[in-house]
Amino acid sequence: MGDPQARKSATLNRLRSQLRKKREALADQFEYKMFIAFVFKEQKKKPALFEAAEVVPVMTNNYEESIMRGVKEEAYSLESSLELLEKDVVQLHAPRYHSMRKDVIGATEAMDFFLWPRNDIEKIVCLLFSRWKGEEDSAYKPMDAQFEFHHSDYEKQLMRLLARKDKAGLIINNPAQSMFLFVDRHHTETPKSKHIVFKLSSICLYLPQDQLTHWAPGTIDEILQPYLPY
């Protein structure tokens, strides 16, 4: 007979694999649309609205190392991160987008939004829609979930990252831990000074699996109306 500890470990690994497949199977049953709105403090200024070129569902475990690294850097607490990893959570990842402005050619590009230092943004809002795969004749419905990240919250975390040497793969999250921003650190230089700039490189939304079939009333046009840049 084999080692009892080895058998137990193998059994646990099989269970984890089965659970992962089940989660992926449900998340993969949907098509998604995600819109990202940068809302400005000045009310007369229209939001900057983008549509994600694609939304890819991935599992929390894929980013476990990055999440735990965030704990070490005190971006968020160990307790909240362990709770997040233990949840049956689906990540919806969007690395590319295009502008919704009519006067801009809608070419898809990698996210490269100038995030900091600037004080004119009030918050970042993500609007998520879905429909069952194979129902192309059906309209996308708004997910019954809120994804917002206020400037005051993400600025605090970016300030902590100023001392970091890493240039890419840095992660910050909103207090609800429903929105994770991947940011890149850039150095800009003028004849008189040097500056550190943070740019958004991709977005991950975290959604409990049991909310995948929870939709709110309304259409894409109705939900986007307050954020349209025209």
- % residues in beta strands: 35-45%
The unreliable regions are none
The outline comes out as: globular
Give the ordered list of helices and strands.
HEEEHHEEEEEEEHEEEH
Radius of gyration from the alpha-carbon trace, in angstroms: 20 Å
Q: How widely separated are the two ends?
A: 71 Å
Largest sheet: 7 strands, antiparallel
Give the averaged pLDDT, no decimals: 82
Total helix count? Answer: 5
In helices, the fraction of residues equals: 10-25%
User: Strand tally, please?
Assistant: 13
SS-derived structural category = alpha+beta
Descriptive notes:
The protein is built from 5 helices and 13 strands. The protein has helices at 4-27, 64-72, 78-86, 151-160, 220-224, and strands at residues 30-40, 48-52, 56-59, 89-94, 96-99, 109-110, 113-116, 121-132, 141-142, 147-150, 170-173, 179-189, 194-208. Strands 1, 2, 5, 6, 8, 9 and 10 form a 7-stranded antiparallel beta sheet that branches. Strands 3, 4, 7, 11, 12 and 13 form a 6-stranded antiparallel beta sheet that branches. It is globular and about 70 Å long.
